[in-house]
Amino acid sequence: MIHLQTTFGANRMNFHVCSSLETFKPNDTYEANLKELLSYLSNETTSKDFSLGSNGFGQNQTHGLALCRGNILATDCATCVDDASEQILKQCPYNEGAVIWYDNCLLRYLNEECFGQLDLLINFYHMCNKDNYPSQPMMFNPKTSNFMSQLAKEAVVNQKMYANRKAKLDGLNIFYGLAQCTRDLSSLFCETCLNNTIKALSYNCYGRQGGRVHTGNCNVRYEMYDFISAWILQYHGV
Fold first, then answer.
1. Is residue 103 exposed (0-12), middle (13-18) or buried (19+ Cβ within 10 Å)?
2. CA-CA distance, 218 to 205, in Å (whole number)?
3. How far apart (Å, rounded) are the C-alpha atoms in residues 63 and 115?
4. Superfamily grouping for domain 125-237
5. Where does the Gnk2-homologous domain lie (predicted)?
6. For residues 101 and 237, what is the distance between their CA atoms, to the nearest angstrom?
7. How far apart are CA 101 and CA 58, in angstroms?
8. The domain 2-115: what is its CATH number?
9. What is the pLDDT of residues 9-20, one digit of tens each?
10. What pTM, to 2 d.p., does this model score?
């Protein structure tokens, strides 16, 4: 398994994982099926924010899904998934399984069906803001965890399995957060995925002013700056 973190221009690719130990040969049937599947996911995700599909038969069958952040425009979703479809083949050439994360989307494929199943360990990455919270991290961490837990509850019951909000956690600074699951998950699995990623966020980004955790099924993020379009947010005092 290969883990790399990269940046490509304004449409930023954050991370990717080449997750399969199996490979295919250039121009074989699996590659043709994979390219057809990626094209299908690009087209379908634009209008729905989420899509999944399978293509091929037997050992040449491939399965994949794509997810866009719940509040972005269809044009931004299309741009992100199109770029992800191109980059995932470049970053994981001839690999029969891979996942790639952008700020605005997630794309994943595998040589075995993975729909509705939790993937918390194999495809996982976290990124933390380099700056620490100015004071009292021991008080700060529980507040951010509670904030994210509330977001998770909202996401689980939302039709898109997505939620974002902002809140004053310390009476002064405004925090922004989001939580999202891929919509092949059940509500129970979405809740499990988000709760686990929030625990990982609290552990890996302890006392930091921001951070994110992504898996193949869900993602959570909080920051002390508005990384989500202000017009889409609802204000909540805490």
1. middle
2. 17
3. 8
4. Gnk2 domain, C-X8-C-X2-C motif (3.30.430.20)
5. 12-114, 121-227
6. 31
7. 28
8. 3.30.430.20
9. 336 778 999 988
10. 0.87
